[in-house]
């Protein structure tokens, strides 16, 4: 009888620890993206996640206010994308999948 109770308690404790590990991982993986003007004509965006991981290959599109894709792109192996600043109003969309999207309006891009 004692052995059965101990096994159940160990099983319950293991499930609680496993659940805590999964919830911690889910909370620590938020998308992050930052865009800065290199000069008057070029902008560099860097994407990644709050756990410190990069985002190579993740979609990063430059989109006009009329929803036209002005510059379709993907982050390079260094998790960056550099593009020519569009002449029309735009925003940047970092899209790593459902729940992992960041939008940056042109007004929020740092200038040199």
TrEMBL record:
Keywords: Signal. It comes from the Bacteria. Residues 1-28 form the signal peptide. This is Secreted protein. It comes from Pseudomonas idahonensis.
């Amino acid at each position: 009888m004692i052995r059965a109770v101990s096994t159940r308690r160990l099983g319950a404790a293991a499930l609680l620890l496993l659940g805590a590990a999964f919830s911690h991982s889910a909370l620590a993986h938020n998308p992050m993206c930052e865009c800065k003007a290199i000069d008057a004509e070029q902008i560099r965006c860097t994407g990644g996640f709050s756990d410190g991981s990069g985002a190579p290959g993740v979609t990063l599109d430059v989109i006009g206010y009329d929803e036209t894709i002005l510059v379709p792109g993907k982050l390079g192996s260094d998790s960056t994308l550099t593009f020519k600043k569009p002449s029309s109003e735009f925003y940047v969309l970092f899209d790593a999948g459902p729940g992992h999207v960041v939008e940056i309006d042109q007004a929020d891009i740092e200038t040199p």
